[in-house]
Design goal:
It is a single chain. The chain contains four helices and no strands. The longest helix has 17 residues. It has a domain of 76 residues. The mean pLDDT is 78. Helix 2 packs antiparallel against helix 3. By secondary structure, the chain is mainly α. 47% of the residues lie in helices and 0% in strands.
Length: 123
């Protein structure tokens, strides 16, 4: 999300995550780390997957210890799923003929491989 934050939806999500992380821990919460340092680190290198994983791990631990934060994080995640993290919309259409290979419909794919045998049409 950090590297895809170029669009307006991405900026809104990033701002909402900043607000959530910088919020006060729940009274009586044993959460020691807030994730603020990891958030700042990721903002400096948004394509760094290691920094993203570090932030994710801290946020999960904080959510386990802070019910208010957990509710806020769940709400943020729902917002992220609804808004997406990149510009534009996707419209998928398949028409005509028979598809003899895997067909993938969606948006923002990466790291996908198909290792099955290639089907050749019979004549």
């Amino acid at each position: 999300m950090a590297s895809g934050a170029a669009g307006e939806a991405g900026r809104q999500l990033w701002a909402a995550l900043n607000h959530l992380v910088r919020g006060r821990p729940e009274e009586g919460s044993s959460a020691v780390a807030t994730g603020e340092a990891e958030l700042v680190s990721l903002s400096r290198a948004p394509d760094d997957e290691e920094r993203a994983r570090a932030l994710s791990a801290i946020l999960l631990r904080r959510a386990e210890q802070d019910a208010v934060f957990q509710a806020g994080l769940a709400q943020w995640q729902q917002q992220a799923r609804t808004l997406g993290t990149g510009p534009g919309e996707t419209h998928n259409t398949i028409s005509g003929g028979t598809q003899r290979s895997p067909v993938l419909q969606g948006r923002d794919f990466s790291g996908i491989t198909f290792n099955g045998p290639v089907e050749r049409p019979t004549e």
